[in-house]
Amino acid sequence: MLSISGWAYKILFMTLPPEIKPHQSVPLLKALHILTRDGKLNQDSRRKLKQVYHLVNFIAPLLNTVLKIEENPTLVDHGAGKSYLGFILYDLLLKPLSQGRVIGIETRGELVAQSIALAQACEFERMQFEHLSVAASMESPLIPDRVDFVTALHACNTATDDAIQFGLKKQARYMVLVPCCQAEVAEVLRKNKAKSLSQTPLSEIWRHPIHTREFGSQITNVLRCLQLEAAGYRVTVTELVGWEHSMKNELIVAEYTGQKRKNAQDRLAAILAELNLSELQTRFQV
Ligand SMILES: C[S@@+](CC[C@H](N)C(=O)[O-])C[C@H]1O[C@@H](n2cnc3c(N)ncnc32)[C@H](O)[C@@H]1O
After folding, report:
1. Of all protein residues, whose CA lies closest to atom 27 belonging to ligand 1?
2. Which of 170, 186, 187, 272 has its CA 20 to 30 A from that of 114?
3. Which one of 107, 114, 158, 283 would you pick to mutate in the ligand 1 pocket, going by the greatest count of ligand atoms within 8 A of its CB?
4. What is the pLDDT of residue 1?
């Protein structure tokens, strides 16, 4: 088991960077390479930790709300990577509560194996990791029929879209998404460029590839928000701190209210038609 206790912990804690919280597992942070072996935090790790804390702080009040109605909430983290978010969230929120569980979904087998080993070493019994794609996890018997939270932090390309479909299928109460670049929409925009050029002054967007790519990314997130609203979620969009140098810093938080917005559905369909993206209808379907 990875643990230190008593005086050793007190002495170590006094020398740790101020970002490290009391009772936070130092061995865990070292195993995740957030802290160096001598307990220091480098620039990259500081930024990563700031992002993860920001998400954990966002999720904490949502978790408290869910705990009033669900004793053992499940959070599924898609495109988990090294599972920084899952581990730190478990350590800070779920471990002290002795309630709730985290499931990490990841396509890279070696990262899944590492996470399983680390969870065992930390005795984080309510953590589970599955070597699955987001799409496959929807049908997998290893995943419960209903989940409470879906998170996807920089899950590549369309993995965020699959995570939304997963959340809709599993009736997630909350979805917390920080999308990565999505290439699919920009590709269809480019493919139908000739048709669009003759239709609208917006065709300026198709003149320079970088504009098409960035516009594709932005409009993807607009469509995702409309999709979530059409499916009965209240959506807020803000910025993820600690990622200021990147375009991939949009934080989408969706809370299920059950009020399906017909006008969101109509707007979604109208945008797809206007931009000649109708072939992506199933991607954004509710
Ligand atoms: C940029 S990393 C982000 C990792 C982690 N969420 C984080 O923020 O540290 C994206 C991860 O998503 C995984 N991934 C990409 N597509 C996926 C898919 N369709 N299903 C599951 N995992 C996927 C990649 O293997 C990679 O580990």
Report:
1. 81
2. 170
3. 107
4. 56
